[in-house]
Specification:
Its EC number is 1.1.1.100. By secondary structure, this protein is of the alpha/beta class. It is about 50% helix and about 15% strand. The protein has a single domain, classed as Rossmann fold, CATH 3.40.50.720. Helix 2 links the parallel strand 2 and strand 3. The mean pLDDT is about 95.
Amino acid sequence: MTNDVKDAVVLVTGANRGIGKVILESALAQGAKKVYAAVRKLESAVPLVEKYGARVVPVELDVTDASTIAAAAKTASDVEIFVNNAGVLRSSSPLAEDAIDSLNYEINANVSGLIRVAQAFAPVLKANGGGVLVQLNSVASLVGFVELATYCASKAASYSITQSLRTQLAEQHTQVISVHPGPIATDMGNEAGFSEIAESPELVANAIFDAVRSGTFHVFPDSMAQQIGGAYASFQRDVVEKGGQEG
């Protein structure tokens, strides 16, 4: 099983912007042999290829479209570290008129999207020795925020799926990592109103590859995340991690 990004083949969904772009760049800086920039529109990855050359390989992948995922799994058949960063956010409170529409939209990308990519790429990772599946979940998977209620619900569901994937994919020696950032300085973070407290996306990227090396399941990369993770630590250790592996 791969336990380092150096000389590994990596795929990052949503790689053209925000946290995904920084994860891609961090993988390259840490010695990845090749990084697939998985994006909905191939032209959005052109600047990455221009900057980094042949080590970046654009591949079309929309987490809401199973056909693009299946095609990407054939193209990127050598992937060893799969980072599912792509996700969507709408600001809807439980009583908002658009709450159900927002929830359905977010569930389709944030939860069903995770299931789609896991089903397509778990066999790829297995064929390549096990590998690593990284899921970007957010502290919103653990704490409900009124104006982001539907997003929080979708991330709580994706966290639950990630826990099950950890147990199931252990059978094929695939490491699963659940990443729980707080407010991060990206367009999505700014749109959610967190610009004044947001921290660098480099914290997320560095924490991910540290977890690959250490075998860690939960990752809390920034200061807000670490505060929440500290309060959650005994439950994650004694219930989620211990119970999931024994169950």
